[in-house]
Amino acid sequence: MKRQFLGLLARVYVLQFALEVPATVAMLADMLMEYGFQVDIGSVRPLLRALQMEGYLESVLRDGIGRVYLLTERGREELQASRQRIDELYRRLHAGLPASASDDAKRSA
User: What's the Cα-to-Cα distance from 45 to each of 7, 94, 99, 109, rounded to whole Å?
Assistant: First the structure.
């Protein structure tokens, strides 16, 4: 279950990164590692292929850089929907907490 959740979260991160900047596989792997994901280029490539097959990313060759990944319009829609689901989950996780538990959650975040 944890692995599946992290995989879904990695997808959202990749979509967000691709929105911010056209990124190479190495750049995306580095960005994911900065956020605590234990990945390498070899494990990021299948994720990028899957996102391309779903129509969320496209890749283009850039002179001097190599292949970069860009968010498509469909990818923007998926990213927006994912953000909404994450926001809703966050609200549900923090709704109805006693004041002290809510304060503890804020301090640990």
Answer: 13, 35, 44, 30
